[in-house]
Design brief:
InterPro entries: DUF3097_C, DUF3097_N. This is DUF3097 domain-containing protein. It comes from Streptomyces caeni. β10, α3 and β11 form a beta-alpha-beta unit. The protein has 272 residues and is α/β, with parallel strands linked by helices. Helix content is 26%, strand content 19%. The strands form three sheets. It has a four-stranded antiparallel sheet, with no helix packed on it. It is elongated, with a radius of gyration of 30 Å.
Length: 272
Amino acid sequence: MRMYSPDLTPPWKKPKPAPEVPADPGLVVEEPRTGFCGAVIRCEAGTVTLEDRFGKHRVFPLEPRGFLLEGRVVTLVRPKTPPRRPARTASGSVAVPGARARVARAGRIYVEGRHDAELVEKVWGDDLRIEGVVVEYLEGVDDLPSIVASFAPGPDARLGVLVDHLVPGSKEWRIAESVTSGHALVVGHPYIDIWQAVKPSSLGIREWPAVPRGQDWKKGVCRALGWPENTGEAWQGILARVRSYKDLEPELLGRVEELIDFVTAGGDAGPR
């Protein structure tokens, strides 16, 4: 049977509790048993790493009364740091924590469809709210000239338009060429659909499949990849894999940035 042994150490001989000091990076302390003196460069669960003036690193346990700070015995503890906010937005811009959305500008950015709008919102949404730019979607671009004329863009209400499959000689190219307002900018990417602007590697596929002419492109992609032919559900799965601008092709990135710059900074431009 284990007997209880009371602590008979007189109170005046018991060590006083050492003050707790956060092991913040750069704090210079000494480990008294080894005499190693250095600055904190890392503090993890149960250990602290010090670096001396020669660049040498040593790892020590975080024990009570385990270090000297300016000659005083202290207990190093892990710093209580708030959760870090992302340094950048999904578009790669510097994040502005707590920034309020700006009142919407008169200018707008038009995209072809709902999927285009959802992708732009996911990657550039933070930037657009700060700049006060609203993105709206059209149902195709066949009536683009009349839509631009109805919007009546001007110096204080510029209009940017993002078009799918804008390649020389295409129907979309001819439509874009017919927009002549100096306060409207029509740009586009070369892909048949906005789906293709998502990098295949981000979706875990080698490449986007080729779909024979005359077939519905989205349904053809779903069949080729073995996905259910519910294109709305397929798109939500694609969109979920987009985390930042790094998941998108540069041909789309440059065009969206160009439109944001045009609508917010102004300047005359024609179709391109």
